[in-house]
Amino acid sequence: xxxxxxxxxxxxxxAGHSSIAVTLPKPWAEAMNLRPGDLVVFDQNxxxxxxxxxxxxxxxxVAAAPFLVTARSFDTPGVLERLVVGAYRVGxxxxxxxxxxxxxxxxxxxxxxxxxxxxxVSVVSQEPNRIVLQNFIDPSKYGLPQLVQRMKMILVAxxxxxxxxxxxxxxSRRIATLEDESTKVLALLVRQLFLASRDWSLARRIGSPDxxxxxxxxxxxxxxxxxxxxxxxxxxxxxxxxxxxxxxxxDAGALGLPELKAQLKNVVEALMHPSLDGAxxxxxxxxxxxxxxxxxxxxxxxxxxxxxxxxxxxLGRGATCLSVLAxxxxxxxxSTGTETVMVEAA
Length: 346
Known about the structure:
The protein has helices at 26-31, 79-89, 105-116, 144-168, 175-198, 200-205, 213-241, 252-255, 257-272, 276-303, 308-336, and strands spanning 13-15, 19-21, 40-44, 50-54, 67-71, 94-99, 121-127, 130-135. It is an alpha+beta fold.
C-alpha cells in the first residue's frame, strides 16, 4: 500500500506527569492498520535514529505465503528457472509451480537444476502438476562482508585458473564449478540486500548499520557480478585458444594477471576496512593497472596472436570494474568522517 509523504517535523508533546510523546503521521498509521491501543516496536540504530513498525499480534503465527506461479503449461526453456531464481533473489522462501498439463521431464529437470543452483533451496514436494521449492537459509547468518569476501576468493580462483591454463597449456576443467559457486553466492547476496531493505534490524545484523548503505552494497554486488562474468568469459576464451597458441607466445605476466589478482585483494580489503589513506592508494594503483591492461590489449591487437586481444579487452573491463569498487572504497572511508587527507601543495 502506498501513502502520502507526511510532514517530517513533529513537535514533542507532554504526556502525563513526566512523559513525552510524538504523534504518528495519519497516512502511515492508516496504511499500517494501527488503532488506539495497538503496540508498536522501536529499533534503535547506532547513530541514535529510531525505526518504527507495528508489533506482531501475540499468538499469531505468521505463515509466509508461497510465491505461486500458475500456467496451463510451461514450454519455453529457461523461463521456469529464471522465475525461481528471481523469486529467491527478492526474498521468497517458498516457491510453488502449478500447471494444468503435467510438467514435461525437461521442465522438471530445469526446476531441479534451479534448486541446485541456489544456496539453501530444496524441492519439498513434487507431483506431475505441482512442484514446491523451499528455502531453509536463516538470513541473519550470512553477513554482507563475509559474502563479499567469499566472492573475492572465487574471483581470485578464476584468475589463478587462467594463469594455470597459460602455464600448463592445458584446458581448464574447473570453469563450471567456479561459475556455479559464483552464481550461488551472488544470488544470496542479492537476496540479502532485498531482505535487508525491508527489515532494518536485519540490515544491521548482516553488516549494514545505516540503511542508506544498502544502495552502496548493491553497486558492490553488481560490480562483483560483472567481474565474475568477465573472468568466466576470459577463462573460456583462453580454453578455446590455448592449444592454438605458439609456445611462449604469452604468459600470465604479459596479460597483467598477477597484478590484477593482487589488486582485487587490495580493493576488497579497502572496502571491508575503510581507511581514507588506504582507499586513495588503492584507487591510484587500480587506475595504473587498468591503463597497463588496456595498453596490452592494443599491443595484442597489433600482434594478432590468436584471440588474445579479446582476452586482454575482457581483463581491461575487469580493471574498470575494480576502479568502480575502488571509488566506493573512498566513499566508505569518507563517510566515516574520522580522517583528514593533507594534500601537499605543488
